[in-house]
Design a protein that fits this description.
Layout lengths: L1 H23 L6 H10 L2 H22 L3 H14 L8 H44 L10 H16 L6 E7 L2 H8 L1 H18 L5 E6 L2 E6 L3 H16 L3 E3 L2 E3 L3 E6 L8 H16 L5 E4 L4 E3 L9
Parallel strand pairs: 6-7
Antiparallel strand pairs: 1-3, 1-6, 2-3, 4-5, 7-8
Helix pairs in contact: 1-3, 1-5, 3-4, 4-5, 7-8
Enzyme class: transferase
Catalytic activity: 2 GTP = 3',3'-c-di-GMP + 2 diphosphate
Pfam family, one: GGDEF
Length: 308
């Protein structure tokens, strides 16, 4: 944006120079025309042209660091403009100096365009750094920092009368066994598989994140019970997509706990209730979904459906 502003100023400066050239070219006509030009270029006109050219010099100096030689040219032009407009001898000098300024202005614009490209490059680098700071390297999902920020945003909007939301915490069942039995590389593949399914199945979620370790967090604008039903479908999908490891096929199961904001003053109770629901799911057999409505935890689906 800064580069565009600079280039806009350069465009304005070029217009001012062209206006000055137009006024100066009046000196090239015959005596009658010269007299008319002299009348047209009154004291106020000369001062206006002089002011415009001084402004051009100031802009150039500010944005390109012009050397003193360029400022000297502006000084010569200022002196020339003060010569009586009826003097034909002043015209060639004014035109020549104006051309020099326009040439310098063209070089300035090239330098500013280069600066704009550099600014754009640096902006993209900063955006890349910010993306890396908010992304989990292993799964490609958003990380805990991004989750905390989005949770605060949604909660603040809710407190101000905005839309409610649901939080789902997901934990991979028996994840330690994957690492102990098959190695950490397989454990990483399990995390990536879970992340992929969550991303695909919850493409309408506000944010899907790796919360930490083998735990994931999802923020949705669905009402709590609808969000719980959706997560139960995801749980079933997860179990129906075994992961091949060598000659073995590993079935991945997840436990899920959900909550939504109530009369909370801060967002932390929302996380706490979801964590309580997750703990209940794991404590009562894993591979199932519970939600916390602010009073108690409730199982989604019949117990016989949510088996290990």
């Amino acid at each position: 944006m800064t580069g565009n502003l600079i280039l806009t100023l350069v465009g304005i400066a070029s217009g001012l120079v062209l206006l000055a050239v137009g006024l100066a070219l009046g000196f090239r006509f015959g005596r009658k025309q010269s007299q008319m030009a002299g009348e047209a270029m009154s004291k106020n006109d000369r001062e206006r042209v002089l002011q415009m050219l001084h402004e051009l010099g100031a802009w150039t100096n500010e944005y390109s660091g012009s050397v003193s030689q360029y400022q000297d040219r502006l000084g010569e032009l200022s002196s020339a403009v003060r010569i009586d407009a009826k003097s034909n001898q002043a015209a060639p000098k004014i035109v020549a100096l104006l051309k020099q300024i326009m040439d310098s202005n063209e070089q300035l614009q090239t330098r500013l365009e280069s600066a704009e490209r550099q600014l754009d490059k640096q902006t993209k680098q900063i955006e890349s750094y910010l993306t890396e700071a908010r992304t989990d390297a292993l799964t490609g999902l958003y990380n805990r920092r991004a989750f905390d920020q989005k949770l605060d945003e949604l909660f603040l909007a809710f407190r101000n009368g905005g839309r409610s939301f649901s939080l789902a915490l997901v934990d991979i069942d028996h994840f330690k066994n994957f690492n102990d039995t098959h190695g950490h590389q397989v454990g990483d593949q399990v995390l990536q598989q879970v992340a992929k399914i969550l991303r695909v199945e919850l493409d309408d979620a506000v944010i899907v994140t790796r919360f930490g370790g083998e735990e994931f967090a999802i923020l949705m604008t669905r009402p709590l019970k609808f969000a719980a039903e959706k997560m139960n479908q995801v749980r079933k999908t997860m179990a129906s997509h075994p992961m091949d490891v060598g000659s073995q096929s590993l079935t991945i199961a997840i436990s899920v706990g959900l909550s939504e904001p109530r009369d909370d003053l801060v967002a932390s109770p929302v996380v706490r209730r979801a964590d309580e629901a997750l703990y209940t799911a794991k404590n009562f057999g894993r591979n199932r979904v519970y939600y916390h409505d602010g009073k108690a935890t409730t199982l989604v689906g019949a117990p016989e459906v949510a088996k290990r």
